[in-house]
Amino acid sequence: MNPKDYLPSNDDFNAVASAYEIRAAKSLLKAAEIRRNKERDNIELNPKRDDENLKNDIVYKLGLIAGLNFIIDLPREAKKHIHNLEGDLK
Hints:
The protein is mainly alpha-helical. The protein has one domain. Helix content is 70%, strand content 0%. The chain contains three helices and no strands. It has helices spanning 10-17, 23-45, 58-89. Helix 1 (10-17) crosses helix 3 (58-89) and helix 2 (23-45) packs across helix 3 (58-89).
């Protein structure tokens, strides 16, 4: 993932990169991790297709997990990108 594709300004980049240092953002990211892990566990125990209720369908749940992974990984990727830029400046 290239965070530059999703963070249009340097301010956004810095804010997202420091998300794990901000209490509210850290709590939101932790909640996303918990939800992702619950969905993963549910899929492992009960993988099923459900044409009647798409929110119970495995494809929907896999998309949800992918979206949560994106949110969880974006701060780390932004921080890594900033670190790499700082290394290039030295």
